[in-house]
């Protein structure tokens, strides 16, 4: 069962992530270089505004790095969900 | 020596490190028994030359001529491999054939897609007009000329996503620092390095090392800088995050795309990279098709060493399949990268899907080893090293 973790939980409020279907899923588990955030940026750039990209990362640092970039780049963090050994992080392209 | 039942043709698309290594590894596995009536290896490429791309850094900084890093492709292939210099225009996986620019049709039993990645400055408004690069031979030569004329001012280096050789931007800015100090003009030049995420390299360990180098060498840096547009008239680069830098010389690593033949054949993702199984390296949903090097969509570094390790796996598995045996080898995500630190020092990182990298302390010895590998690369291309 998915465990919703600490700080990013605010992003989960009002979002039924179990029912939300991302437009694109990027499996970046095991990616050290260029890494999950770079894979997310690559995917976001190729998607239309309003679409949701879900990235899978086995690096705990992603649960901090990705929300930080999302805020800086004015996109929307939809949810951060901890699965067994990896994180699913969804971002809606804002512009 | 591999026993073969019936005639088989392996077609390899691409004449870079991945395609060339697969061709030569396969030829070695058949122990020189390549004949048209048993096993045929056909390599299709767009160019008669083979270029060692890590050499572009040294070309741009005037340390070596471009010709030093070039060989005739034919000279790198083992006897029996058929070289076709005729760009592939389309792949039809259902029919099992490739069509080239001249209209020739090459049927295959096994196809290796090793078509690489290419910088695309046209993807960012103003970038092609406003920036120089060092990721192609032509760009490296142009940058060498521009650096030779550059007297004083601000040099800004930008990095876009995705791009090959993730350590090259760091190598460039560190080497520029050494270059201008060697010329006695470092105090006239401000160096600014920018990076798309919240540190100066995607690997935290490398970022920590590089940031200390930047502080020591007075290289300015800005993170969270994804290039949105360039104004070539006013000489200003703008980021999607709201940042901007006026520049006197802009050096960019543009976003990369897969080869046109991949997109034209409908086999790529949004950026033209082929969806690929991360362990078997088979093209997703494709029969008897493998993908090697930058052409994959895998979340690993687009680097020569990645292609090198993958080529070994694919050659073994294709040879096994031709022999009617199970294909047992799996790629573990292994990557090895030297990192030039300037001042005749270097370091390296090695990692896989499950093993994080730990950079070694930069040293003269590691730089010398990198210099030696620049010469030994041709043995790797031939499948020896």
Automatic annotation (TrEMBL), chain A:
Gene3D superfamilies the record matches:
TusA-like domain
SUPFAM superfamilies cross-referenced by the UniProt entry: SirA-like
Q: Which domain of life is it from?
A: Bacteria
Question: What InterPro entries does the record tag this protein with?
Answer: TusA-like (IPR001455), TusA-like_sf (IPR036868)
Pfam families from the UniProt entry: TusA
Range of residues in the leader sequence: none
List residues of the UPF0033 domain: 26-50
Q: Which family does it belong to?
A: Belongs to the sulfur carrier protein TusA family.
Q: What is this protein called?
A: Sulfurtransferase TusA family protein
Automatic annotation (TrEMBL), chain B:
| The keyword Oxidoreductase appears for this protein | yes
Where is the FAD/NAD(P)-binding domain positioned along the sequence? Answer: 9-149
Transmembrane stretches, by residue range? none
Q: Does the keyword Secreted apply?
A: no
One GO MF term on file is: oxidoreductase activity
Keywords, A to Z, come to: Oxidoreductase
Q: Read off the Gene3D superfamilies from this record.
A: FAD/NAD(P)-binding domain (3.50.50.60)
Q: What is its EC number?
A: 1.-.-.-
**Identification of the protein by name:** FAD/NAD(P)-binding oxidoreductase
Query: Which source organism does the UniProt entry give?
Result: Carboxydichorda subterranea
């Amino acid at each position: 069962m998915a465990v919703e973790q600490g700080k990013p939980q605010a992003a989960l409020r009002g979002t039924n992530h179990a029912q939300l279907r991302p437009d694109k899923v990027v499996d970046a588990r095991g990616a050290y270089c260029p890494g999950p955030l770079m894979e997310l940026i690559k995917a976001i750039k190729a998607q239309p505004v309003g679409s949701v990209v879900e990235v899978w990362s086995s690096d705990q640092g992603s649960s901090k790095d990705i929300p930080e970039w999302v805020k800086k780049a004015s996109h929307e963090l939809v949810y951060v969900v901890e699965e067994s050994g990896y994180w699913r992080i969804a971002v809606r392209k804002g512009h | 020596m591999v026993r073969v039942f019936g005639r088989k043709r392996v077609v390899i698309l691409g004449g870079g490190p991945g395609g060339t290594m697969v061709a030569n590894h396969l030829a070695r596995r058949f122990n020189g028994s390549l004949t048209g009536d048993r096993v045929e290896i056909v390599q299709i490429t767009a160019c008669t030359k083979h270029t060692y791309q890590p050499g572009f850094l040294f070309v741009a900084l005037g340390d070596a001529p471009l010709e030093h890093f070039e060989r005739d492709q034919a000279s790198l292939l083992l006897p029996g491999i058929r070289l076709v210099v005729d760009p592939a225009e389309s792949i039809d996986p259902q029919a099992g054939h490739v069509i080239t620019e001249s209209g020739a049709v090459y049927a295959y039993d096994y196809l290796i897609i090793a078509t690489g990645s290419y910088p695309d400055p046209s993807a960012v408004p103003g970038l092609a007009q406003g920036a120089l690069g060092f990721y192609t031979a032509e760009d490296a030569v142009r940058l060498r000329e521009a650096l030779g004329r550059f007297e004083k001012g601000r040099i800004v280096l930008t990095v876009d996503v995705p791009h090959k050789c993730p350590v090259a931007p760091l190598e460039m800015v560190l080497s520029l620092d050494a270059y201008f100090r060697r010329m006695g003009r470092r105090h006239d030049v401000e160096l600014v390095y920018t990076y798309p995420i919240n540190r100066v390299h995607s690997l935290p360990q490398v970022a920590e090392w590089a940031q200390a180098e930047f502080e020591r060498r007075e290289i300015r840096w800005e993170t969270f800088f994804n290039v949105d547009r360039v104004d070539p008239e006013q000489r200003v680069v703008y980021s999607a995050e709201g940042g901007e830098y006026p520049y006197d010389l802009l050096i960019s690593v543009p976003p990369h795309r897969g080869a046109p033949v991949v997109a034209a054949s409908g086999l790529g993702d949004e950026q033209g990279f082929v969806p690929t199984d991360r362990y078997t390296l088979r093209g997703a949903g494709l029969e008897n098709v493998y993908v090697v090097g930058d052409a994959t969509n895998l979340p690993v570094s687009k680097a020569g060493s990645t292609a090198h390790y993958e080529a070994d796996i694919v050659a073994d598995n294709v040879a096994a399949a031709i022999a009617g045996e199970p294909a047992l080898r799996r790629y573990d995500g292994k990557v090895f990268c030297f990192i030039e630190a300037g001042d005749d020092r270097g370091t390296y990182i090695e990692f896989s899907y499950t093993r994080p990298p730990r950079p070694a302390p930069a040293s003269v010895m590691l730089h010398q080893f990198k210099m030696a590998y620049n010469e030994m690369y041709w043995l790797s291309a031939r499948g020896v090293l």
